[in-house]
Structure to design on (662 residues):
């Protein structure tokens, strides 16, 4: 984990003297070129979103607009504002439920190992990697049979269930680092499963919850396949609405660009403000944790 | 801790709801998908959305249709596309990610800012990335305007609209190609087993390699999957989508490699330098070998993402561009636009098998190392 590698073990010599084979100017040139690759699309995104439709011309794609036109944002808001609301509700509810269940599962798996716990866990984890296309048709039938097709609740159910493997994984790894002695001491004091969770485990889980909530929120917000399959117009999340916004041929590009900014803003803000925890979730996704 | 205490029973009780849900939603649904893929549900449009559809068991007919049916050429092109996509996507992400991690490991000023820049696309959805890059890759604008900055004429490459392809091969040769590739792999396994003195393993591997080769030489040429040659290759319109995918995901490999590089104790590097290794040797002999588990784990994660990617393609080239389509997209369209559920289920099952080839050995090896701790 980038930010949590103990600095004592890897303390770098203050001077970078022995590592000069490329030379510092070369290093910065490489970094600037790479940064251009990552940032140019974002420049174009904003430049186009802020142009008025008649100023969008393929030959002058790259020019910054002479006059800023903020109207695209209100127009995009009018088209996908409701979908943004759907996504927000969906992502918050699904994330909280998946995080709560994941925390309990992780606690049970890390601190009360029973025979076969690892096999059970491996079977759970497989759910994280399956292509959802392999379960989509029965899932669609199931949600429909429950009467939840076309509602946000059907989508929430799917996201909570398929979110369980990763939330359980992250919490299990998080709790594995909590000393067993802590749990044993509480057991000797007469505390049981639930008391230990409430008094010992839950209070120290905040960093785990932050990682899981950020990761899961981003995943649910960004998801497209379930959004396209399990909902209809009223409950559609923003990813689907955005794909429809930019799909048409006649649409001028300022609108989908403004829509893309609106759709990206929540996860982008989360990343910029809490990037460290985002990266931890990212690395935990590669199972090792 | 011993025996089944009350607390341990609570632990099992807490896990049970999740396990039941996952048993249904993962294993039950997979079983159901596989079953549906053996039926004809939806092949007759009148039955597809009927309340009580008549569903007949047809065995492997859907799979046969996908791999050799006259109408399913699109699917076969997609299988080839997804392989090319996966290879270039993984190479791109590993190369760029490693390069960026090595650069950041040299402690440039403002490291946190660089890292933020390289990683932010990860927080976007593939739909947002696709929308932005679709505009970047417009035929007369965006990237194609770059040459005009130095006075050259604008490029005319059809990033998302090209219909050209390279490295074409005849689909009829697929069984032979597969057999030869697997035979070569078995040959390598046999050679390694021979080198490390594992007699049984060497014999088994060598025998299967020989059987496969004999089959490829004597039997396979007489098999024809299709009546006429059918050419599939790497469609050039995929290049733009691969670039966008690398843009989004290379930050991930950078983060993995950077974590790995930071975990290599400075003493190891010092020791190599003291032994007279120059900087390049030091990387080749000390740093890269230590990073190879990370490379493997990144390849597996990226590979499984790549096989199921479809939202990026949907957003960039639209659902109906057969030159950029992938099986994951086809599954969605076949099932939910054409209501051909059985055929869709067969594509879903094939995707699952491809992903399982990657994931199952990985998960089991992860748990083996963990149990030995």
């Amino acid at each position: 984990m980038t930010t949590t590698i103990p600095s004592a073990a890897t303390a770098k010599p203050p001077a970078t003297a022995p590592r000069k084979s490329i030379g510092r100017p070369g290093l910065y040139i490489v970094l600037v070129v790479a940064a251009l690759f990552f940032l140019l699309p974002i420049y174009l995104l904003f430049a186009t979103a802020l142009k008025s439709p008649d100023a969008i011309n393929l030959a002058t794609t790259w020019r910054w607009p002479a006059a800023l036109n903020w109207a695209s944002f209100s127009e995009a808001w009018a088209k996908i504002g409701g979908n943004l609301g759907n996504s927000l509700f969906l992502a918050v509810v699904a994330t909280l439920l998946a995080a709560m269940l994941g925390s309990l599962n992780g606690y049970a798996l890390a601190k009360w190992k029973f025979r076969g716990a690892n096999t059970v866990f491996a079977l759970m984890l497989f759910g994280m990697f399956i292509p959802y296309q392999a379960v989509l048709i029965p899932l669609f039938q199931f949600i429909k049979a429950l009467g939840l097709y076309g509602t946000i609740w059907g989508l929430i159910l799917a996201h909570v269930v398929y979110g369980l493997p990763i939330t359980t994984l992250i919490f299990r790894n998080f709790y594995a680092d909590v000393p067993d002695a802590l749990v044993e001491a509480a057991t000797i004091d007469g505390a049981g499963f639930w008391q230990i969770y409430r008094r010992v485990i839950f209070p120290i889980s905040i960093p785990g919850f932050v990682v899981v909530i950020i990761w899961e929120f981003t995943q649910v917000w960004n998801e497209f396949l379930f959004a396209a399959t399990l909902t209809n117009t009223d409950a559609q999340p923003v990813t689907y609405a955005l794909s429809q916004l930019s799909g048409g041929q006649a649409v001028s590009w300022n609108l989908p660009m403004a829509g893309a900014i609106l759709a990206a803003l929540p996860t982008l803000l989360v990343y910029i403000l809490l990037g460290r925890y985002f990266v931890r979730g990212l690395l935990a996704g590669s199972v090792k944790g | 801790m011993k025996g089944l205490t009350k607390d341990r029973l609570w632990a099992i009780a807490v896990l049970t709801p999740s396990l039941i849900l996952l048993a249904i939603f993962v294993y039950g649904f997979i079983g159901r998908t596989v079953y549906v893929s053996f039926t004809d549900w939806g092949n007759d449009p009148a039955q597809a959305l009927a309340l009580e559809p008549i569903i007949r068991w047809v065995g492997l007919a859907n799979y046969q249709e996908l791999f050799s049916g006259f109408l399913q050429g699109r699917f076969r092109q997609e299988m080839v596309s997804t392989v090319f996509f996966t290879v270039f996507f993984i190479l791109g992400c590993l190369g760029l990610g490693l390069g960026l991690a090595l650069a950041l490991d040299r402690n440039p000023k403002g490291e946190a800012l660089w890292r933020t820049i390289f990683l932010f696309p990860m927080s976007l959805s593939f739909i947002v990335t696709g929308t932005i890059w679709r505009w970047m890759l417009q035929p007369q604008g965006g990237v194609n305007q770059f040459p005009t900055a130095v006075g050259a004429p604008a490029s005319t490459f059809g990033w998302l609209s090209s219909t050209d392809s390279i490295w074409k091969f005849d689909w009829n040769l697929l069984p032979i190609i597969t057999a030869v590739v697997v035979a070569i792999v078995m040959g390598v396994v046999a050679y390694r087993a021979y080198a490390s003195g594992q007699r049984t393993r060497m014999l088994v591997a060598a025998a299967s390699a020989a059987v496969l080769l004999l089959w490829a030489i004597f039997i396979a040429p007489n098999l024809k999957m299709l009546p006429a040659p059918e050419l599939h290759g790497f469609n050039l319109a995929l290049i733009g989508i691969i670039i966008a995918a690398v843009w989004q995901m290379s930050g991930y490999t950078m983060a993995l490699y950077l974590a790995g590089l930071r975990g290599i104790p400075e003493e190891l590097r010092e020791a190599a330098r003291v032994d007279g290794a120059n900087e390049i040797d030091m990387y080749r002999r000390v740093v890269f070998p230590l990073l190879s588990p990370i490379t493997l784990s990144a390849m597996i994660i990226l590979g499984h993402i790549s096989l199921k990617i479809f939202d990026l393609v949907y957003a960039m080239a639209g659902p109906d561009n057969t030159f950029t389509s992938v099986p994951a997209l086809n599954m969605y369209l076949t099932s939910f636009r054409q209501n051909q559920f059985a055929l869709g289920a067969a594509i879903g099952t094939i995707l699952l098998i491809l992903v399982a080839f990657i994931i199952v050995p990985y998960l089991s090896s992860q748990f083996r190392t963990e149990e030995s701790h």
User: Anything to note?
Assistant: The radius of gyration of chain A is 24 Å. Chain A touches chain B through 109 residues (CB under 8 Å). The CA atoms of residues 143 and 174 of chain A lie 33 Å apart.
